[in-house]
Amino acid sequence: MFTGIIEDLGILKKIEKEKGNINLYFKSKLTQELKIDQSLSHNGVCLTVVSIDNDIYKVTAVKETLDKSNLGGLKVNSIVNLERAMKSNARLDGHYVQGHVDQIAKCLNVRETDGSWYYEFEYDNTSNNITIEKGSIAVNGVSLTVVNSKLDGFSVAVIPYTYNNTNFKKIQKGDNVNIEFDMIGKYITKLIRNR
């Protein structure tokens, strides 16, 4: 379980195919604090640390993860948002983020407006995932508030701190991002649908 508050940016140093999986090797300030078998969010995707070598750690993404996220499109030197699992005795500064990405969204527009940035995203709504105005959404693992909710899209406003300390500064029109819809909203939607 995560909060959507990004701790560091990881730099992808190596990609290695292994059957239907890919092994990703990242460099980060967090590496020295990590342990093997620890969960770590990468652009909102919960992956397990499988090895550590000096300042580089390795995680493996399986086909299911690659099908639902943008991790398969990463290249060497790509930058990802990183967050360690939340502590049960700490403040929850973002919202509950499971690290289980629901799907990819496409960036339709990026607009700077006097010190903040607005990002507009579109997603395939055939899975009946929804957003609500002022509800929570995780984009590449970042906990954000929905500004403009639509049937198949939403917008978010990004403050300078988030822009400068996450990979939002790299997101451009046409880029794919990982999205995880609000967990409580998903449960309510499923309950109503099953009635």
Could you please describe the fold and organization of this structure?
With 195 residues, the chain is mostly beta strands. It folds into 2 domains: 77 residues, Elongation Factor Tu (Ef-tu), domain 3 (Beta Barrel); 91 residues, Elongation Factor Tu (Ef-tu), domain 3 (Beta Barrel), CATH 2.40.30.20. The chain is 12% helix and 44% strand. The chain is built from 3 helices and 12 strands, in the order βββββαββββββαβα. A hairpin with a 2-residue loop joins strand 4 and strand 5. The longest helix has 11 residues.
- Which parts are unreliable, with pLDDT below 50 for 5 consecutive residues or more? none
The first-level CATH class of the largest domain is given as Mainly Beta
Strand proportion, as a percent range, falls in 35-45%
Sheet with the most strands, sense and barrel status: 6 strands, antiparallel, barrel
Distance between the termini: 29 Å
Q: How would you write the strand order of the largest sheet? A: 1-2-5-4-3-6
What is the architecture of the largest domain at the second tier of CATH? Beta Barrel
Protein structure class: mainly beta
Q: What is the number of helices?
A: 3
Radius of gyration equals 16 Å
- Give the total of beta strands: 12
- Overall outline: globular
Query: Roughly how much helix do the residues carry, as a percent range?
Result: 10-25%
